[in-house]
């Protein structure tokens, strides 16, 4: 069963006081700098980190709980919490299948001293839940409150799980028995298949500018380090470069992407109509051209991830490339689910025209990130 993200919820994270957003196949968020677009994107990365077992590490790398908790006014009578939730639906029926939620808090202290086996400022998992929806009813497949953990196995039997789980670790990442707990395996695998792309490096030492090992690569790595292999996979394994050639010509009229058959390494170059006999290798290409080719590799790869997130893909691109980029993104959204944040209204407008979707405007209201037209129940009113 293939799962798609049908809803997303975040509470208590940076500028996200409390927000629930329904999602479709192509989701475009546009807004000015500083309104919290990246916080929305980052919250999704944290959900994946919960599945991979890196959640506490990722939060600590952001400065710890003191840095990541909601920056605005909070109710001091309640414990400070960061809550993330994702809703996963069956791609064939659009029916809600699973809801995974994790709640992270501070290390408890007694008399100013840390209580329990923990570091003073590390994030701790306080609650964790996985709900299964079936025929209008919901069932808890995983329930965790602090150190108490129960899981329902494949036979429908609820039992305590005796694993040595630290407070900084997630149960979703550490219960890895697909035969006994197939639902946990399905949800974890779905989240792990997400891919995030932002800030492709284009400096002289960038992985994009270097040849890579000649290994069949159906999906682009997040840093673009296997771009040449992604192109070679399309050209020499799939043996179908029609979409690739169309995308290159749409962005750079008359240009031809040169993809030699790999030996030990894979490489690529670009021939421009002004210099038809000269191939410009990756190391020679301009930053904007190279970045756009990386986006082509991201969106036209042989196999796209189940969920693909782009953060400000228009960075360093010439305005003439925004319309071709919009067409490229819309094409990809027919094969996978796309989440995109941008501060370019021009790109958002092009996506709306090319894809027939409404871009969502991210705004700041009283210090919190919000979406224009979004109700507190997580629905959009007509605007």
TrEMBL record:
GO molecular function term, any single one: ATP hydrolysis activity
GO annotation, biological process: DNA synthesis involved in DNA repair; double-strand break repair
Record-linked Pfam families: AAA_21
Protein name: ATPase
Lineage: Bacteria, Pseudomonadati, Pseudomonadota, Betaproteobacteria, Burkholderiales
InterPro entries per the UniProt record, alphabetical: ATPase_AAA_core (IPR003959), P-loop_NTPase (IPR027417), RecF-like (IPR014555)
ATPase AAA-type core domain mapped to chain residues: 26-349
Family annotation (SUPFAM superfamilies): P-loop containing nucleoside triphosphate hydrolases
